[in-house]
Specification:
The protein is an alpha+beta fold and 229 residues long. Helices cover 28% and strands 25% of the residues. A 10-stranded mixed beta sheet has the order 1-3-2-4-5-10-6-7-8-9. The chain starts with a helix and ends in a 5-residue tail after the last strand.
Length: 229
């Protein structure tokens, strides 16, 4: 049976976090964080909340293992909100459809005023530059249950080469989607929805990609959900 320390270790591994990242995020001493990781004692009160936020999960999951570990509350921040030392702001788009149809992504990013906080360590561990990090609201249920309507997706605009089975933000014919992509011979691409019953997969040849204005916007590296009561 998993313990709280096991779950802490699990999330650290999944997010690529180190001991020092938890020290910075929680404000606890190195020794205290070591004790949490080793199971000597369990975080409580405000430290527990900060630890859960750093691990992008809930206090309940850390203590009991109940519910999904992937829950994370995501909120936009304005320009007056002070950032922690290990945080940056990234653009947060309520509607990312602008990226289709030949629009300038860099210009839209520069003009977007909505922001989300993001850990520098998280981006650094995934080799994502600040310039390539954006977030957007997902629409539709073609990728359900992996991505639900209204979820927040985090994109790396620098990764556009297809790695089989990974989820990418794409444009087809001027419309925006999130799909799993697979390489096909001779420059083709296989486009797969997790909700395959309602959204059958597509196969595009190299010429189809040109004709249908297929474009890869970036790799979806994180999905954040908010539960409704």
């Amino acid at each position: 049976m998993q313990t709280t320390s096991d779950r802490i270790a699990q999330r650290m591994k999944e997010l690529g976090l180190q001991h020092k990242d938890l020290v910075v995020a929680t404000g606890a001493s190195k020794g205290t964080v070591t004790n949490w990781i080793n199971g000597v004692n369990t975080p409580t009160n405000e430290r527990l909340i900060k630890l859960a936020q750093a691990l992008k999960t809930t206090s309940s999951w850390l203590l009991t293992g109940n519910s999904s570990p992937e829950f994370a509350q995501v909120e936009p921040w304005d320009s007056y909100t002070p950032l922690d030392d290990d945080e940056i702001e990234i653009p947060f788009f309520k509607d990312f459809s602008f990226a289709c149809g030949g629009g300038s992504i860099s210009e839209a990013i520069a003009n977007e005023t909505r922001k989300l906080r993001m850990s520098k360590a998280t981006l650094r561990n995934l080799s994502i530059t600040k310039e390539n990090a954006v977030a957007a609201t997902a629409m539709g249920d073609s990728m359900s249950p992996t991505i639900k309507d209204g979820d927040t997706i985090h994109l790396d605009l620098g990764r556009k080469n297809i790695k089989d089975g990974k989820i990418f933000a794409i444009c087809i014919g001027g419309l925006f989607y999130c799909k799993r992509l697979y390489n096909l011979p001779l420059g083709g691409v296989r486009i797969v929805s997790d909700n395959a019953t309602e959204f059958p997969e597509l196969h595009l040849s190299e010429q189809d990609r040109i004709d249908q204005q297929f474009e890869i916007i970036g790799w979806v590296w994180q999905i954040s959900s908010l539960e409704n009561w």
